[in-house]
């Protein structure tokens, strides 16, 4: 899978996006599939083109196989987001709601360094629970969890030897619309 993701990153470079509020995200992001997730001053969205005007590469078969095995739904994802966390990267609590139909599950694969994942409620500000995600962990976010607030508080940089230079990759597959 790491080799597949290097191929994806060769065609769709990992980029540090700017949020609509003008803050550079610490996570570097790429994507594969019909559409990819992007953000800039104009807003968060799925786009059929990369910021440089190129199409996104295809979703690697190994990722699609995980989706087919575990998602519980009988259609393919149309987007595969690739998030890279270097030393000090984190992702604030947010909901995933840029997809057109929010009933489809999201499947996540963690690779590389351990990450402290936090998940709360469907509304902002409620109680949260934290769990360490380790390399090889796969999660299906469906049902009530699909719209729960979630984020990554920190990674344990260098905890895994999977990526020679350290860091964490999270792959999420989605039906974006
Ligand atoms: C819970 N990624 O890409 S993966 C994201 O580790 C994102 O990079 C985190 O949040 C990461 O949007 C968390 C687990 C995950 C993914 C999607 C979810 C949890 C989710 C969607 C809804 C609820
Ligand atoms: Fe998310």
Number of strands: 11
Q: Architecture in CATH?
A: Sandwich
Largest sheet: 5 strands, antiparallel
- Give the CATH superfamily: Alpha-ketoglutarate-dependent dioxygenase AlkB-like
CATH C-level: Mainly Beta
> Pairing-aware structural class of the strands and helices?
mainly beta
Strand content: 25-35%
**Distance N to C terminus:** 25 Å
Report on this model:
With 177 residues, this protein is mainly beta. The chain has a single domain, classed as Sandwich (Jelly Rolls), CATH 2.60.120. Helices cover 11% and strands 34% of the residues. It has helices at 2-11, 61-70; strands spanning 28-33, 36-40, 43-47, 79-85, 91-94, 106-112, 115-119, 129-133, 138-141, 150-155, 168-174. The strands form three sheets. It has a five-stranded antiparallel beta sheet, with helices on one face. A four-stranded antiparallel beta sheet has the order 5-10-7-8, with no helix packed on it. The chain has a two-stranded antiparallel ribbon with strand order 2-3. A hairpin with a 2-residue loop joins strand 2 (36-40) and strand 3. The protein starts with a helix and ends with a strand. N-(carboxycarbonyl)-S-(naphthalen-2-ylmethyl)-L-cysteine is lined by residues 81, 83, 91, 96, 106, 108, 115, 117, 139, 141, 145-146, 148, 150, 152, 170, 172.
């Amino acid at each position: 899978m790491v080799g597949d993701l290097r191929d994806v990153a060769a065609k769709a470079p990992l980029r540090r996006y700017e949020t609509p509020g003008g803050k550079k995200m610490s996570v570097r992001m790429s994507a594969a599939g019909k559409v990819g997730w992007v953000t800039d001053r104009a807003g968060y969205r799925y786009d059929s083109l990369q910021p440089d005007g190129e199409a996104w590469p295809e979703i690697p078969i190994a990722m699609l196989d995980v989706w087919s095995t575990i998602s519980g739904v009988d259609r393919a994802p149309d987007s595969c987001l690739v998030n890279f966390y270097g030393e000090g990267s984190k992702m604030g609590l947010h909901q995933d709601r840029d997809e057109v139909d929010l009933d489809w599950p999201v499947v996540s694969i963690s690779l590389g360094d351990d990450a402290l994942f936090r998940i709360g409620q469907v509304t902002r500000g409620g109680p949260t629970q934290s769990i360490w995600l380790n390399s090889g962990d796969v999660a299906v976010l469906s049902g009530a969890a699909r719209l729960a607030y979630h984020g990554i508080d920190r990674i344990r940089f260098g905890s895994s030897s999977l990526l020679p230079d350290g860091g964490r990759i999270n792959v999420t597959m989605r039906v974006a619309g």
